[in-house]
Structure formats: structure tokens, C-alpha cells
Structure prediction request, 348 residues.
Amino acid sequence: MILKQNIAYYLVGAIFAIVLTGCSMIDENQDDCGEQTKINYELQLITNISTEIHTQLDTHADESFAEMLKSHLSTIFTDFAKDVNLSFYGVTGDSTLLYHDKHIMNDSEHSYTLFIPRRKYMHLALANIDDNSVIKQENADNCHMSSLHQVASDTIESQNTGLFTARQMMEMIEGIDQTFNVRLYMANCSAVLMIDPQGHDISNMRVFTTGFATAFYVSDSLYEYKKSAPIVRTNRIMSNDSRYVGFVSVNLPSFNPGAKSRSVIETTEPFITNPGEETLWEFRIYQLMDDNTTTETVLHIKEPLRAGQLKIIKARVGENGQIESETPNVGISVTLDWKKGGTYNPEL
Prediction:
């Protein structure tokens, strides 16, 4: 059974000051401020990371790599919200931004007491955006255009934080204190290629992924895909105690045919899929040979990679530098003496 990790941590608080009444921010006299609105923020970490690692790394010889991988991904599949970005929009006309607040939590639990005028809002919340070197928020002044976009480049770095988002309609009513519960769900995911060198020198090997979304529209919980998806550099992990060398990519999800491309919110087997006929995302591996030629191997994965998911592909190096997959349902294409050029070629 796929393991579900629903680890909740709360930010309790009402949002913003009402300027007309003279109410101010935290820790000041609030006797005349009127009704409070409490908002409980709860991080929902729905992921298969423990199950995937346990399934793919199930022998004593794999223990070292498993621990190394868990450590490397500890800032991605996390129940910790460092920064939170809170926006409140009108629900008519242009759905423009009415109130915005931003806090550094650096904790698993925090409380705020703030105030906001009573009306109906669409509320969007983001967590762990500030330190993400690849993803930036754009068009935050408009509810339906507010999005998380990757930096514009043909080749980008792997992401370095686990992203969480939420959206919720809130109708704040005059004359009563109210409490709203907001659940934030993970928006990115990770792919790992584990390679057994089998005695070959792979110190100059370069590994990339591609085929993922380029943006996420927070209000509609929808991903955007472009025909020319950027190439994502992987991070290499290795230790003297494991025969494997790992290449880790953290990115937005792949396209999911036959289903709406949304963040994962279901908690029952959300990552179980059957492979289709279409390649949805790829690993691209470039191995420099002794004669200074390069062997390119493309691994074609036909199962979607969803938000919150970890996917491990196990492989080995062949005699001509090609990569041979040990994971079922992975297509392979090999080009010996590969030359850089054409489209979708990474910046090696």
C-alpha cells in the first residue's frame, strides 16, 4: 500500500489590520478592533517517498544509498514551512489583490492575531517560495493569473525546496468571530536515476530530466505545459558504501493524460498508475567515452510523475556507455558518437 504522510502543522491567526478603526498588528491593544478571523494553516504532505525507497532499495546493500537519498530530499518532502505568503482577493470583476501578508515561520507551529474587513475573499497561500532558486511567483495582483513560474532558460537547475500551495473561498460575516481551516498541498516532485557503473568510469557522466510543467496556476490548481519543456540538471549523490551513483531531479510534475493536471489532494493510492503508450517525461544521459566520443541514452517514462511523488529508476552502464534500465516499462533509445545540436539539447 502506498504510504500517506499527512503531517499537519498549524499557523493560527487572523489576517491584517483594519486601517479605518486604528487596529494595528501583533501585540498591541485590540480592545476596539472588532471581530477576529482565525485561519488554521495545515501542511498536507501526501507522498510515496517512504514506500518508493522501501520498494526499490529493499536489500542490505541498498541501505547506504537509501539513507543518503532520504537526507538529500529532506528539504523537499518536508512537513516544515519556512516562509508563508498569504493573499486575499476580491471575488468580482478583475479579482484583484486586496490584502497581502508574508511571514517567516522557521518553525512547525506559529500564531498570529491580525484583522481583516468582513467580505467574501478568495484566499491563496504559498509556502517555501523564498528560497526556491528556480520558481518565482508572478502576476500576484490578480487571483486567476497568480502563478508559480520557472525561470526562463533552456536548461535549469533542480529545485531546492518543497513547494506547498492552497486556495480557499472565505466569506467573512459581520458580527461573529470565525475560524477557517486551510490545507496546503505539495506542488512539486522528484525523479531519481540510480546507476550501477559496473566498473566503468562515470565521473564525467551528465544526467538531465525533461518533460515537466513550466508553471502552476494557484487559484485553479492547474499546471501549464509547453511543447519545448526546459531541461533540468540533476544533482549527483554518491558514497563509498554504495555501488550506485544517484542523479536527483526536483521539478514540477509531468503531464497526466486522462486526468486534470492538479496538485494531489486524495489520500488513497494517489500514485498508482499504469503506463500508457506516450512518453510523458525523460531522463537524458551523456557518457563521455575513452575515445572522446559521447554516448547519449534517453530513458522514456510513460507513467506520470505527480506532485508529491518520488520515482526511482534503476539502471546500469553497458559496454558502449549506454544506460540499460532495470526498471520495467521504460523505453530506451541510444545514440553512439552523439553530437550536440538540434532541439532539446542540454547545456553540458
In short: Residues 1-32 have pLDDT under 50 and may be disordered. The first strand starts at residue 10 and ends at 13. The first helix runs from residue 49 to 56. The helical segments are 49-56, 63-72.
